[in-house]
Amino acid sequence: QVQLQESGPGLVKPSETLSLTCTVSGGSISNYNWNWIRQSPGKGLEWIGYIYSSGSTNYNPSLKGRVTISVDTSKNQFSLKVNSVTAADTAVYYCARRIQLSYCNGGSCGLGNWLDPWGQGTPVTVSS
Amino acid sequence: EIVLTQSPATLSLSPGEGATLSCRASQSVNTYLAWYQQKPGQAPRLLIYDASNRATGIPDRFSGSGSGTDFTLTISSLEPEDFAVYYCQQRNTWPLTFGPGTKVDIK
Questions:
Q1: Using CA atoms, how far apart are residues B15 and A80, in angstroms rounded to an integer?
Q2: pLDDT digits (tens, 9 = 90+) for A19-50
Q3: Which of A58, A104, A116 is most worth mutating to test chain B (most B CB atoms within 10 A of its CB)?
């Protein structure tokens, strides 16, 4: 089964760039949508953005253009960069696959995309 | 963005009791709502998607219902491993958003 593992520095200085990588094992990164989510005591769970394996992206406007997500299909990895970090970027960062699942509700059936599975998460602290 | 609110913040129950958790959206999300379970030190795990569909491997004591702005997660009889934090999440509108969570703890 697919497993995801985040890696990267646990400590980043204010105003610098946070860089994390998610390695996908047990399956191909191709033809899926890959996401970053973070969790902090102050803001709870916050979706950061996704990249499709083809390279198309979608980001949360709340991060005001500070985020870049990229993919390296040859390494089965995707990455997150957040620039100009502040203490507010301190959080546990998760990567997750967005998977298409079939559903039926009453007489209506269809396909929906949900976050599954997630990596175990990596804590990042922004501090000098 | 769509704001999700969850109630109660904490639910204190005993094993064997039933649990009812609520999630309310600031505007309609149709049935495009999921529930996740998170235990300490672990990532969230998908339980229920599209309001009422159980994810693979999820026991049938977990059920979801609702549409529009009001949703419910029901655990029919709590097992020891069910004590955790539960989050709702919508996919109706970008950006994806999560509720603040309901903690189910042991009474």
A1: 41
A2: 999 999 999 999 999 999 999 988 899 999 99
A3: A116
